[in-house]
Amino acid sequence: MRPFGSRFILLFGAVLLSPSCMAQLAVAQPELSTPPAAIKGGDPVIDTSYCSAIPAGDARLVLVSKLCEFALTYRRELPDFIAQQTTTTHQMSSTNVITAQVTFRRGHEHYSHITINGQHVPSTGRLPRNVRFISAGEFGSFLVDLFASPGVTEFKFRKEAMLRGIPVAIYDFHIPLGKNTFWTLRDSKGLALRPEFRGELWLDRQTGRPLREELEPIRLPAGSEFAAVKTITDYAMTPVGDAGVFLLPAKSEAHVCVQSRPVSCMDNVLIFHDYRKFVATTRIMAGSPEP
Fold first, then answer.
1. Is 35 inside any structural domain?
2. Which of 121, 125, 247, 259 could form an S-S bond across to 114 if both were Cys, CB 3.0 to 4.6 Å?
3. Are 135 and 231 in contact (CB under 8 A)?
4. CB-based contact 186:9 (threshold 8 Å)
5. How far apart are the C-alpha atoms of 267 and 275, rounded to whole Å?
6. How many CB atoms lie within 10 A of CB 166?
7. pLDDT in tens, 147-169
8. How far apart are CA 130 and CA 121, in angstroms?
9. Based on the structure, what is the number of domains in the chain?
10. Per the domain annotation, does 34 fall within a domain?
11. Does 3 reside within a domain?
12. Helix, strand or coil for residue 166?
């Protein structure tokens, strides 16, 4: 089974991005190797045995072990679905509202029916000049990628807290330089960066399910257009029509600062709503009667 599109943030200036290109970019990132699997009865059997070894050195990581097992089987549990995505972008005194229909099918995101400030954007259209970055890959890819290669991600328990009235345990995590294969920053010149980064996981203390993830690069290379990046994604158990209830993103925020004089910062706030099951329709045409 293919992974979801990798998480990425795209920055663009004079080179603007068409909606059709945005959809292509969401699935054009390099794919990771899938978690260890065997084929049994025609269905992939995911090997989650190494998840149980995560708390071996620290019993407080038992929730991370539960998350590992959940994440590695997450993809095959999700149905194909359609959702609405509303993105509000802020930069200095400029605000834009971008809406899109997101179709999640067979592990990939596809964007369509895009509007900017209420105006439909044709497939050959372009985003306004003051819309300078987009992010994609919020639909679960990051959770899977954290555990796709055993031992790459370093976890550390920080503290217990409350989030939206739910008791949570907060864990720090770290991806060393050279081992980041899935979080990509791409500047307006097309330069792709996969920096060393750190983040936080806020896990439900009862189930180990993720309620929030935060991540940011530790160091950005000299000459990068990025001065600072931080993303926060909130997850919630969400009904998808009659398909059931699934853990899905409810809100994602991205804060990006670029090298300029003075430094310029931008914010994207993405709200995901109106989830419903994807249903393919077919039309049967009657054939012409034989002579």
1. no
2. 121
3. yes
4. yes
5. 24
6. 15
7. 887 888 999 999 999 999 999 99
8. 16
9. 1
10. no
11. no
12. strand
